[in-house]
Amino acid sequence: MPTYIMLSNLTDEGAKTLKANPKRLQEVNKEIEKFGAKVTAQYAVLGPYDFVSIMECPDNETIARVSVELASRGTVHLLTLPAVPIANFVRNLKP
Length: 95
Description:
The chain is of the alpha+beta class. Helices cover 42% and strands 31% of the residues. The chain has one domain (3-85): Lrp/AsnC effector binding domain/regulation of amino acid metabolism (RAM) domain (Alpha-Beta Plaits, 2-Layer Sandwich), CATH 3.30.70.920. The chain has four helices and four strands; from the N terminus they run βααββαβα. Strand 2 (38-44) and strand 3 (51-56) form a beta hairpin.
C-alpha cells in the first residue's frame, strides 16, 4: 500500500483540545482508519511542525479525503506528502 507522510501543526483550538484530552491523538488515528488509511508511526517533533505521521493509504484520493476531513475541523494544519521507498526510487532511475 502507498505510504504518505503527514506533517501537522496544531491550531490554538487543537492545542487546547489536546491539553484537555491527550488521548485524542489515538482517537483521531482510529477515525482515520474509518476512511481507509492507517497510521503506522507517529512522532511529536520539535521545529516547524508539531507531529509527523507515517500513513498507509490505498491511493491519493483517499489520503486527500483524510487531509480534508482532518483540516476541516479547524484544529490542525496539514502538509501531506507521498513517500517513495528508496528501492523503488533507485529501480526507476536505472535506464
